[in-house]
């Protein structure tokens, strides 16, 4: 079977993606986990009024990313919400444009 493993991180069907996998789906928004803003939203870090020049993020977070403490909190929130294991029938699909949005598709059709 062509899709028996994740094409990005290689995990088999039903197993959790390797952290940082391009194909992992966010359990909060159902988009690509590594590119969504859910970590900032769920951790309460976005404040557009206070930080309009850094996309609503505190400048240190905007420049350096999440702190170790934030990463641990985010991991906890992901696990509480429920990580999404690899499933080729509901996977992220890429089109030919590398700069376009990755979409969640239902391959049951």
Summary of the model, kept short:
By secondary structure, the chain is mostly helical. The chain contains three helices and two strands, in the order αααββ.
Query: Which strand-content bin applies to the residues?
Result: under 5%
What is the number of helices? 3
Binned, the helix content reads 10-25%
The chain-level mean pLDDT equals 86
Helix-strand pattern, N to C? HHHEE
Give the spatial strand order of the biggest sheet.
Answer: 1-2
pLDDT under 50 segments (min length 5)?
A: 98-109
Radius of gyration: 16 Å
Largest sheet: 2 strands, antiparallel
Polypeptide structure, described:
The two termini are 17 Å apart. The protein has helices spanning 38-42, 59-64, 68-81, and strands spanning 92-93, 103-104. A two-stranded antiparallel sheet has the order 1-2. The protein is 23% helix and 4% strand. The model is unreliable at 98-109 (pLDDT under 50). The protein is mainly α.
Characteristic key phrases:
mainly alpha, two-stranded antiparallel ribbon, 3 helices
Summarize the helices and strands and which ones pair or pack:
Blueprint: H1 38-42, H2 59-64, H3 68-81, E1 92-93, E2 103-104
Antiparallel strand pairs: 1-2
